[in-house]
Structures are given as C-alpha cells and as structure tokens.
Amino acid sequence: MWYPGHIAKTKRAIKDNIKAVSAVIELVDSRIPYSSRAYEYASLFRDKKKIIIFNKYDICEIEKTKKWIKIYENKGYIVKTVSLKSINIKNFLKKNIANEIPEKFNERRALVVGAPNVGKSTFINSLKGKKTTSVGNTPGITRGVQWINVDSKTKIMDTPGILFPELYNKSIAYKLILAGCLKAEDDEADDAAFFAFDYLKENNPKILENSVENGSKLENAYEFIENFAKKRNFLKKGGIGDYQRGLKTWLKEISDGKLGRITYEIPDEYEEIKV
Question: Which residue of 85, 150, 184, 268 has the fewest C-beta atoms within 10 A of its own C-beta?
C-alpha cells in the first residue's frame, strides 16, 4: 500500500484538531467517487457531520455517478455536485454548504479534506483570496493550521498535507492514475492504459472512438496508443508512432476530461462498500 510519511502526518493533524469542527467537507472526483475517497475517513471523522462534494461533475457519466450519490445520501451524507473550476466557490459554499454545518457557539466550523487533484487546492485557494486567511490561535489547535473566514459565522479549517485512499488493489491505483490523483511509477502508466482501454472498450467505446478512428475495434492498448500517436503526428524514424509520447498525452487528456464523460466504477462492482 502506498502510505508515505506525509499522509501519516496529515492523519495526526486531523486527529489533533477534529474536535474544533462540527463538520467535515470531503471532496471526491465524480468519475471515481469511491476510489478517490480520503483514507480512513470513517475512523478519522467519526461523529462529525459529513458533507461530500462530487467535483468534476461535468466530465462524469451522470447516471453512473448518481448511483453513488444515492448510496451516500442513504447513509446520511450531505452530497453536492459541482465543477469547481467553473463557479464562484465562495458563493457556492455560502449558498449550498454553510447552512449544513452544525452551529456551535454562534459559529459554523468545518474541516476540508481530499486526495490530490480532486479539487481541494482549488477549493481552498479560491476561499483564501488575498485577505481571508488567518493562522488559527484557538486553544488546542496545532500551530500552522489555518482558518479561512468565509463569512461572519462560517470558518473552514485547512490542515497541512494530504490524504489518500487505501490502495488495497491495483484497479484503485489505476483509477487514481487515470483521474490524475496518483503519479504513475515505472510501468504503472502502461498498466493503467491497458486497464482504461479494456474498461472503455467494454463500457464506453465512444471514448476510444473519440481518440482514434475505429479505436474500440483494436486488439489492445499498445496498438491503440500507437495509432493515437500516429494520428497526433508523434512519430519516430520510419514513421513509427512514438508510443511513450502517445501514452503520456492520451492519459493526460483522459485525466483532463477532454475526450468525453467517463465514470470508472459503479456500486455493483464492489462486494462491500465502506461508508
């Protein structure tokens, strides 16, 4: 399992400061709404009000993603859908989230968490602006934790570091690579591309067709990416498609949602769903 020291540090910071908030705002990628959830969320956040923001809703397959939304709502989560890059995040928070945060001592306090590239940085940086951030001096709060004042009552805590899902199988790692949440190491990019090709060929062939003419009819990901490289004029000597450049470009465009809507998982694929 990929579990570096900085994630352990983030977990400690959350455990030290969770008592200061009444809600947790968790961001997930709408294309992988289960695989992109923060590591050990259940034990870390315990009895806090849980709000999940399905970001990148504009590039998911909505009907598939709605199945996850229904599951989380049935478990008591507050779920909101959005594309953070296309809205005023502060207004979105005031209108859709603030009133969901339980009020204590005339304040609403929430902690924001999320894996890399699900939108946490976009969310936090937009709220910070130029003059909205102050270093927390609340008793019992770790030095360096920042409170972001959204309005006169609402404060958001941004803890340092990141959380990651538990990488207990390869398919989760591949989905994180395809969503841009995890950097591929060594041959993982190849494995992720083969995973994507096989999945899309069976479940969403139009994505392959958007990349390469008759792409869904090709035998495997290697053949597909070579054709993709040739189409983009990524050529080596002799007119051979530059596989590595094609691979990198195709994975980036998949991650950015440039080739069409994708959702990589549905609840039916899991024997057990931890919520």
Answer: 268
- Per the CB < 8 A criterion, the answer to whether 224 and 208 are in contact is yes
Among 11-15, 59-63, 136-140, 211-215, the range with the most confident prediction by mean pLDDT is 59-63
Whether 210 has a binding-site annotation, put simply, is no
Q: Is 230 annotated as a binding residue?
A: no
For 214-240, what is the mean pLDDT? 93
Consult the annotation and say whether 161 binds a ligand.
yes
CATH code at 170-269: 1.10.1580.10
Tell me where in the chain the CATH 3.40.50.300 domain(s) lie: 5-158
Residue position matching structure tokens 């399905």: 54
- Span 230-239, average pLDDT: 92
- Residue 163's φ and ψ, nearest 5 degrees, are -120, 150
Is 118 flagged in the annotation as binding? yes
201 marked among binding-site residues: no
pTM: 0.88
- pLDDT at residue 166 in the model: 62
Q: Secondary structure of 1-14 in the HEC alphabet? A: CCCCHHHHHHHHHH
Is 5-158 CATH 3.40.50.300?
A: yes
96 is in an annotated binding site: no
